[in-house]
Amino acid sequence: MPVSVTDYSHVRLTVSDIERSRAFYDAVFGFDVAFELPAEADEQTKEQLSFLFGGVIYSFGGGLLGLRPVAPDEDRFHEDRAGLDHVSFSVVDVAALEQAVTVLDDLGVAHEGIKDLGGAGIAILEFRDPDNIALELTAPTA
Question: Are the CB atoms for 71 and 15 separated by under 8 Å?
Fold first, then answer.
């Protein structure tokens, strides 16, 4: 009998530079911070939050998204290696994708055009984070 899961919990992305990645994710998504190590944390707090590895965990409607800054500076993501292919976030409609294009353009974030996947009933907008991690916004077309 297969494992019966009830929902998605979280994804944690390994990044090479937490300041650069936080600036990107804060500017693009504006997620609420669920967990982060305060700059002036005492030893007990550091111990309690050691699972952050010096990173941050964001909270949003879909669950949690963490950034774990342990990759070497020169390392970059590639979806053709074993592991993650991309992370896709849902938006309410194609108008939200169009608004996202404006946000990305204003931030200078390179992106593809909005693509209608036809029979799938969705449209997508693809872009990448500073570590080249493939990100996507998905909206229903019907």
Answer: yes
